[in-house]
Amino acid sequence: MARVLITGASGFVGQNLVLALENRTDHEVIPLTRESSLKDFHGTQVDHIIHLAGANRPATDDGFTMDNVDYVDDILACFRPRSPSSSFHYASSSRYMRDDPYGRSKKAGEERVVQLAPQAGWSTAIWRLPNLFGKWCKPNYNSFIATFIDQAIRNEEFSINDPAASVDLLYVDDLIDLYLGALATGTSPGVQFVETFATTRTTVGEVAEMIDSFRRDSQTTLIPDVGNDLRKQLHATYLSHLDQDARVFNLNRITSDTGSFCELFKADSYGQVSVLTIEPGASRGNHFHDTKCENFHLAQGRVELIERDVRGGETLTRVVQTGQSFWTRPGWIHTLINVGDGTAVLLIWANEVFDEERPDTFRLREAREKE
Question: Any idea which residues carry the catalytic annotation?
Answer without folding.
Answer: 102
